[in-house]
């Protein structure tokens, strides 16, 4: 018989990487919420607590609600940020002592009568732009364990932080698995922002001459979950300046589709972006970190909702809170990780925002000084710039 010419490939050792696996699970879970699919958050092993099955109020449909009802042992609740719950109930919400972290408010839970457990009704309760609120039938109830992780997951998915939730004991886990419902550890959700930030690696680089800085490069960074890339725009040779002991000019700029790309007059983002690049060219070197944190971390869709609320009389801060978000949801560990990867641990920061100074310093970056970055009002964004100064504490010079 003729001998086979096939070669035997060496076996590949399949060893689970816990960090990458956790990031992947959270990324998938956030995508499921965006599709309207429920997700099961699980407590720490041995805690004795029930799991929490959640679905995004703005995307869940009849099938998702039916799946939740088939697994529930207690009535469903609606999880909201206190600022959003106050709008739904038409009354102030007392301070809640809960599992809040990093200064974020603990979630509030509202009982959900059957009349409100309908997709359209839930969307109205979640979204103040589209709301057609019924009489206040819901009432405050204790928030179930893992509620904070649930709201964090919704925010990671750039969804409105409003979720339908039911508790599921261990006996219901096989049924949830048979329905194809994804389960993940709540602690992995809470750890995700920091874990994703510290896993950033350089994945691509190219020379890209810019209109205001012809000697420039763009370096792309990607986290281990494979999510949206963050970019570093290097003007001149800031890496060489840093290696020689200097402090390059640096700016942390959150992406703004409307301002950066379309030239929106509602903000000053586009002029800030182009002005920073021109300033770095004049300075001889600099780095601009272009971060995927649209709308102070709430995402483009929610930023458009916030604009609608601003047209109805709210300022930037109050519009974000009406959606259930904090005034500023951004983190600076991403920026610090990128700077360290570029060898720039000491910088002069081009900013008017003292929170950026404190945020980078807290992440181990030596901020050698602040360089003002003032952009004149244009007649449309005057109130916006005034709000940044009076309510966000931005420095005027």
Automatic annotation (TrEMBL):
Its cofactor is Zn(2+). InterPro entries: GTP_cyclohydro_II (IPR032677), RibA (IPR000926), RibA-like_sf (IPR036144). It comes from the Bacteria. Keywords: GTP-binding, Hydrolase, Metal-binding, Nucleotide-binding, Riboflavin biosynthesis, Zinc. The active site is at 328 (proton acceptor), 330 (nucleophile). It catalyses: GTP + 4 H2O = 2,5-diamino-6-hydroxy-4-(5-phosphoribosylamino)-pyrimidine + formate + 2 phosphate + 3 H(+). GTP binds at residues 251-255, 272, 294-296, 316, 351, 356. Residues 202-371 form the GTP cyclohydrolase II domain. Gene3D superfamilies: GTP cyclohydrolase II (3.40.50.10990). Binds 1 zinc ion per subunit. Zn(2+) binds at residues 256, 267, 269. PANTHER family: 3,4-DIHYDROXY-2-BUTANONE 4-PHOSPHATE SYNTHASE, GTP CYCLOHYDROLASE II-RELATED. Catalyzes the conversion of GTP to 2,5-diamino-6-ribosylamino-4(3H)-pyrimidinone 5'-phosphate (DARP), formate and pyrophosphate. Belongs to the GTP cyclohydrolase II family. This is GTP cyclohydrolase-2.
